[in-house]
Amino acid sequence: MWPKLHGYAVTGAAYGARVACSCRFVGGRPLGDCRKDFEPGMDLITLTEDTAARSVTARFPLIARQTATYREGWGCVMEPWGN
């Protein structure tokens, strides 16, 4: 069961980071408003932003963390995949 749960957690965190980064740094909306763009079932994903780095990190508790960073001309780009 662990590989499936881990895969969902990493994918959900990556999706959350990318969507929230685009919402925040491309769309200019407040981070709290970006949760509206999430798919149903993403309630466990938490978001934090680093305004200096123009990045958003999404976390699935105790399992996964993913970061997307805004890059001029590219939009929001995922950082290398990790846990």
Q: How would you portray this structure in words?
A:
This protein is α+β, with helices and mostly antiparallel strands. The chain is built from one helix and four strands; from the N terminus they run H-E-E-E-E. The protein has a four-stranded antiparallel β-sheet with strand order 1-2-3-4. Strand 3 and strand 4 form a beta hairpin.
Short structural description:
With 83 residues, the chain is of the alpha+beta class.
Keywords:
four-stranded antiparallel sheet; globular; 83 residues
SSE arrangement:
Blueprint: H1 2-26, E1 46-50, E2 55-60, E3 64-71, E4 75-78
Antiparallel strand pairs: 1-2, 2-3, 3-4
H-E string: HEEEE
Assembly annotation = single chain
Supply the helix-strand structural class. Answer: alpha+beta
Please, what is the average pLDDT?
Answer: 93
How many beta-strand runs? 4
Instruction: Give the termini distance in whole angstroms.
Output: 17 Å
Strand order of the largest sheet: 1-2-3-4
Strand count, sense and barrel status of the largest sheet are: 4 strands, antiparallel
Strand content: 25-35%
Count of helical regions: 1
Helix content: 25-40%
Task: Compute the CA-based radius of gyration.
Answer: 12 Å
Low-confidence stretches: none
* Large-scale geometry: globular
